[in-house]
Amino acid sequence: MDRWYWTDSSMMPGEVAKYSCACKRLYDGDDRTSYEDGHLSITNVRLMWKHPSQSKSLGLSLALVVLVEEETGGFLSSAKLVIHLSPRPPEQPDGPVGKSSNAHIKLAIRQSDLQTSLSQLQAVLSDRAWVSSSFRNLSLNHPTRGNAPKAPRAGILGIERALEAKQQAANESISSAFEDLKQLMVQAKDMVALSHNIAARIKEQGHDSSSDETTQFRSCLLSLGIDDPVTRDAVGSTNEYHKKLANEISSALTIPVQEAGGVMLLSEVYCRINRARGMQLLSPEDVANACSLMKNSKYPLNLHAFESGVQVLQLSSLSTAKLVKETRDLLENECGGRDGFGEGRWRGVSAGEVARLAGLPLMLAKERLLLCEREGAVLRDESNQGLNFYPNYFDALEA
Q1: Is the torsion defined by CA of 329, 332, 334, 336 positive or negative?
Q2: Is the dihedral of CA 42, 44, 46, 48 positive or negative?
Q3: CB–CB of 270/282 below 8 Å?
Q4: Least-confidence region, from 95-104, 121-130, 219-228, 295-304
Q5: What CA–CA distance (Å, rounded) separates 112 from 342?
Q6: Is the pLDDT of residue 196 over 60?
Q7: Secondary structure element (H or E) that encloses residue 395, with its range
Q8: What is the rounded CA–CA span in Å between residue 230 and residue 278?
Q9: d(CA 198, CA 366)
Q10: Which of 30, 315, 348, 388 is 20 to 30 A off residue 230, Cα-Cα?
Q11: What is the pLDDT of residue 350?
Q12: Helices and strands in the chain, H and E counts
């Protein structure tokens, strides 16, 4: 802001207005200033900003401009012109700020005016009207000082300094962000410990809490995720790492698998466990290797692969016979059952309907129907209307 200076609103001899638009706010670097709701004018030699209630304007010589960039607006931020500037010349008149450590300013404008104002500003910077003979004896900093020397122009060194300052500011922002993230992780551990203490108290005084309150609090605990996830660096051995990871997956997903009907796709297992672990993400290979160890161990979950190659994590207590029976019962209820013959209710059921009725992914519903077909519990009817399934009653026919 120390490059702006106070001036009247009149044009200098030879000065031509090129473009004007509303300017919501002036920024000193990335910091907001109190100069807001004004009007921006771009001439062939300077920028001028004026508030409707003020008689004077703020002027900025285009000879000081090193680089111009655009910053598009977001949901809560307006579009901006970012202007990098060379140092303030010593002969410049007084302005709103005596000294500033920032080497750039920002002009907050409407998104609809951003491209036009940027192109107009770049055009006048290319023309460099302030170096022509008509302006050599005029100060661009103050219209009444005819013999003041003109401001120095920035060359390659000025551009390099502006880019270096911008890079340094970006590095400082990144470092600050990581410091905030570390602090957040520390606070998250404290919150998890606190939640465990509260959960223990609820368990001790369960009769004092309603079932709705308990359910709501448990859902909040689940959203916190895993408080101490297993890491390869902490364990060391790959085999031991996968064993501990299998135990973690089993502990974290047993209840979700039960709520999903006893079966969960391995792809969904991968997404859920990574969501629970937060920053300590797992690779698909680590998840698959850990789940494969559940097959020969005493875990409430185990890995099962269908003949098509689809892999799922299912409850160890869920047998094939039980799965087939549940699917067949569902089809009998929807197709009409044994009493549905001749009543107009007999119809086939598609994999999509089974997915909807059982609350399963479509792929998993189809795999269940194909498993029942291989076990002889259901029959298929494939036609131009699609693939439908019926309960198999042929075994009940009399010879």
Answers
A1: negative
A2: negative
A3: yes
A4: 219-228
A5: 69
A6: yes
A7: none
A8: 12
A9: 43
A10: 315
A11: 87
A12: 10, 13
Rounded Cα gap, residues 61 and 151, in angstroms: 8
Report the amino acid identity of residue 312. Answer: V
Q: How far is CA 257 from the centre of its chain?
A: 27
Phi and psi at 109, nearest 5°, equal -135, 175
Q: Residues 6 or more apart from 178 whose CB is under 8 A from it?
A: none
pLDDT of res. 397:
67
Say how far apart CA 324 and CA 303 lie, in whole Å.
Answer: 18
Give yes or no for a contact between 202 and 214, defined as CB atoms under 8 angstroms apart: yes
Q: How far apart are CA 80 and CA 62, in angstroms?
A: 17
Residue-level pLDDT at 87: 83
Cα distance between residue 187 and residue 190, in whole Å: 5
Minimal CA–CA distance to 85: which of 71, 97, 72, 101? 101
Nearest to 305 by CA among 259, 367, 349, 252: 367
Q: Which amino acid is at 270?
A: Y
- Going by their DSSP bridges, the two strands 17-28 and 31-43 should be labelled as antiparallel
pLDDT for 217 equals 56
User: Which residue bears the tokens 């122009």?
Assistant: 153
Q: How would DSSP label each residue in 114-175?
A: HHHHHHHHHHHHHHTGGGSGGGTTS-SS-TT-TTPPPPPPP-HHHHHHHHHHHHHHHHHHHH
Residues 326, 315: Cα–Cα separation, whole Å? 15
pTM for the model stands at 0.41
CA nearest neighbour of 316 among 330, 333, 328, 299: 299
**CB crowding 120-153: b at 16 or more within 10 Å, else e:** bbeebbeeebbeeeebeebbbbbbeeeebebbee
- Per the CB < 8 A criterion, the answer to whether 154 and 63 are in contact is no
